[in-house]
Amino acid sequence: MILVHDAARPLADSGVFARVIDAVRSGAAAVVLVVEIADTIREVDGPVVDRDRLRAVQTPQGFRAAAIREALDDCADATDDAGAVEAAGYEVRMVAGDPINRKITTPADLLFARAVVGQSGQG
Question: 4, 57 in Cβ contact below 8 A?
Answer without folding.
Answer: no
